[in-house]
Amino acid sequence: MTANKKLLMLPGDGIGPEVMAVVARVIEWFGKRRQISFDVEEGLIGGASYDAHGTPLSDGTLEQAMAADAVLLGAVGGPKWDDLEFSLKPERGLLKIRKEMGLFANLRPAVVFPALAEASTLKTEIVSGLDIMIVRELTGGIYFGEPRGIEDLGNGERRGFNTLVYTTSEIRRVGRVAFELAQKRDRRLCSVDKANVMESTVLWREEMIKLGAEEYPDVELSHLYVDNAAMQLVRDPKQFDVMVTTNMFGDILSDCAAMLTGSLGMLPSASLGAEKDGRIPALYEPVHGSAPDIAGKDMANPLATLSSFSMMLRYSFDLQAEADLVDQAVTNILAGGMRTADIMQPGKAKVSTSVLSDAIIGELDKLSA
Ligand code: NAD
C-alpha cells in the first residue's frame, strides 16, 4: 500500500470557503465511491489568517504547505482588510506562499466548454472547443529584475526603471515544464518573446530552440513575437496547443486568453516548482479573487476551483481517469443547462452554489454507475 497523498486546503476569504466546500464534497465522494483517499489538512491564509494570527501567512501554514504533496487555495482579500499596511494585506500571503514554495511555472488553461461558447465576446466558431495551455514564467523577468526603482534626477525630472533579466537555467526549467505538457497534449509548443528588440528574449528564444533539439525532438516548436501572439490569440486561438512565455508577457496573454472563455468563475490554474526529493511543489487555485460582492450569498461559481482540483489530480497525483471524471461531470452539468449567476444565459436554469454542488455529486454517481 502506498501512502495517501497529502493535500493542504487553504480556503482563504470571501467566496473561498464556499467554493472549497464543493471540492471537499468531491474528495469525500472519491473516498466513498472510488476508494481514493487523501490526507487532507486545512489551513488559514489571507485575511482569515490575519484575523487569527496577525499575519496573512503564518510559519505554521507555510510548513504545512511545504510538507504537502499539493496545495489547493480558494481566494484571498476583501474590503475588511483594505486599510492594513502593505506587508499585512491578504494578497501578501499569496505572494509569499508562491515565493517560498519556489513556484516558477504558472499553468493557465483556457478551455471553452461547447455549452458556454456563446458566453465569449468572440464569435462562437472561433472559440467553441478551444483548449489551450499558457505556461507563464512566474518568479523571474521584469517583475523581479534588479536594478529597479524611481530616482530623482534633481532637475525636476524623475526616472522610473525596471530590468528584464533571464538566465539560462531560469529559461530552461520553465521550458521543460512547457515541453513536457506539450508531450502529453498535441505535441506543439509556441514560445513567445520579443527577440526582435530585447536581448534577454533573444536568449529566451535561443535556449528554447536548444532545449527542444536536445531533449524534446518529438515536440514541434514555433516562435512568435508577443505583439503577433496577442493578435493571433484573438484571431484564431485554436491554432495553439501549449504556449510558453516570460512573466510579464504571460501575465498579459493569459488574461487575454481567459477572456476568450467568457467567465472568471470557470478558470483554473496551477503553479509548479522544482522537483526535490521526488516531489514537485504545486499550488492549485482558481484565477478569480474572493468576490466580496457575492460572498456568503450561495451564488459563487465553484467550477474554477473544481477544475483546479482536477488539474491537481492530473498533474500532481497522476490520477488521469479521476481527473477525466471530474471534467466530464462539469461538462455534463453545463450541457444540462445549469448555470450559476455569473454564467447565466437565456433559457438556462439559474442555480445556487449548493444546488450545483448537489448536481455535481449526482453526476459523479451517474458517471461511475
Ligand atoms: P474578483 O475576481 O474577486 O471579482 C471580480 C468579479 O467577478 C466580481 O463581480 C465577482 O462577483 C465575480 N466573480 C469572481 N469569481 C466568481 C465566481 N467564482 N463566481 C461568481 N462570480 C465571480 O476580483 P476583484 O473584485 O477585483 O477582487 C476582490 C478581492 O479579491 C480583492 O481583495 C482582490 O485583491 C482579491 N483578489 C484575490 C485573488 C486571489 O486570491 N488569487 C485574485 C484576484 C483578486
Notable features of this structure?
2 domains, binds nicotinamide-adenine-dinucleotide, Isopropylmalate Dehydrogenase, 369 residues, 19% strand
Question: Briefly, what is this?
Answer:
It contains twelve helices and 14 strands. It is α/β, with parallel strands linked by helices.
Descriptive notes:
Helices cover 41% and strands 19% of the residues. It has 369 residues and is of the alpha/beta class. The protein folds into 2 domains: 1-104 and 273-369, 3-Layer(aba) Sandwich (Isopropylmalate Dehydrogenase); 107-263, Isopropylmalate Dehydrogenase (3-Layer(aba) Sandwich), CATH 3.40.718.10. The strands form 3 sheets. It has a 10-stranded mixed β-sheet with strand order 2-1-3-12-11-4-5-10-8-9, sandwiched between helices. A two-stranded antiparallel sheet has the order 6-7. The chain has a two-stranded parallel sheet with strand order 13-14. A hairpin with a 5-residue loop joins strand 6 and strand 7. Helix 6 (168-184) packs across helix 7. The model has no long low-confidence stretch (mean pLDDT 95). The protein binds nicotinamide-adenine-dinucleotide. Nicotinamide-adenine-dinucleotide is lined by residues 15, 75-78, 91, 94, 264-265, 285, 288-294, 300-301, 304, 340, 342.
